[in-house]
């Protein structure tokens, strides 16, 4: 579908991508991974045609269509949500207009035997078939279904887009791209602005209804559930693995270990050969053996070990000034916007040194409660901060508020005061902005680099209450682990708003669940909370019903409530058939791999096979393939059970 050959991208003498090549086939869903600034977003822009390479080519058939969702974009503010999303079908509406014109011509003309008349008939037939194949009659239903899946309510459909935040407007753009059904989807951090319910809907959509996908994401669960191939960008080069993200991590580790063993053995052989040559170089009786060893040395194909990018974020929060025993005390707190109740009767106390999580669907009041704590908005009830509480706040949009015309150094120098100004270079180096990187303009930084830069502000003044609203957005997986460790070692108090289960695990000791206008406290870590709720993960939490209030209990339920419409039932039946076919194909693959594995095991059990390293490598690769296929079979079986249930 897409062929990338010898692609090179250079910026002022720095090589970002160095002659990379790969082919994308239909039905492949690729995870593009690598450290922040490795070139992932740049590669997506190149494929989308939004940027040109220094050298190399990107080839695809003319008829291939591409949908591209960048990390940041500017959207039109002239339409309602539904009108903006429906722009995805503009090309179909143009075809409808053309069909109407053709029908009018056929009705008005009388030259039935002419070539022109026959051409009009042929064109109208072609257009009609195109419209039928495109599902033009269902475009309104598809638009609504996609908007609902991405978290909008029906009451939002007729609201103008300018009333929504950047994250919600990004969802509108994502809806448009999905509705166009392009041959290739390029998604750059699509989950950053989605709650967990919407993430799960998007996972199912990408797995069941798309042709080919290349996506950049730092959400491990999302990558594992969606992708079947992983391409890693390391120091300008790529490594290609035909497996999902978790399996790629295992294979990458095995590959490097094998390379190191082979490299060490070869180095030992080279050293012994060189020692022999040096020892007997000037002895006439050994001249033939020496020449033979020299030729042998020249013929050796040197083994190279994959380079590893060892630059790491070094993050440690300064010691926290001692605060009172109860940094945050809330009693009967309520917040309303007009008649809309965000939450009410909220009561809890956060103790000094606690790390707590705020979880729940977007729009249930997590960020609103943080604004109450920060004193940015008014509220009803009691909310008190303890003695000597000093807050360090990281907001979701912090990275977007940076001045793009300043350099990295100027951004920090502008807000630093006192002795800290003498340590700016050291701090920047700890955040991987050492050397020339500190002179980069903010506008050329990647999303992850901007997030790191915004986080430096938290280090400029010692605080004892950290409030982090989605701090992992745009951070790569390695940086997320470093941030997690730093928060865990922070001796102050922390409130973390996050949808990332892996990040919250072993970090928080208390969970506050937002939903249905209530905030409920759960003691224990994130997995304790999930266990109590009898849930497997946070996705199920956000798919579950909000806590039932008395007014909801009294509400009369329609007899038809909960039933699927005809179109929904039809779509569900189609998905069931598709899943059954996929399971049948995967079971055939399992049978083939089982047979291959049995044959390889039999050969390995012989004396000759036991010493055959290539045979062992083949066995390990086949075993890994079988593991991947078995995981896919298990996932598809569970999905089929869910559809039928």
UniProtKB/TrEMBL annotation:
InterPro entries: AAA+_ATPase (IPR003593), ABC_tran_Xtn (IPR032781), ABC_transporter-like_ATP-bd (IPR003439), ABC_transporter-like_CS (IPR017871), ABCF_ATPase (IPR051309), P-loop_NTPase (IPR027417). Residues 2-260, 328-541 form the ABC transporter domain. The keyword Nucleotide-binding applies. Residues 544-567 are annotated as: Disordered. It comes from the Bacteria. Keywords: ATP-binding, Coiled coil, Nucleotide-binding, Repeat. The keyword ATP-binding applies. GO terms for molecular function: ATP binding; ATP hydrolysis activity; DNA binding. Residues 85-112, 246-273 form a coiled coil. Belongs to the ABC transporter superfamily. ABCF family. YbiT subfamily. This is Probable ATP-binding protein YbiT. It comes from Petrimonas mucosa. The gene is ydiF.
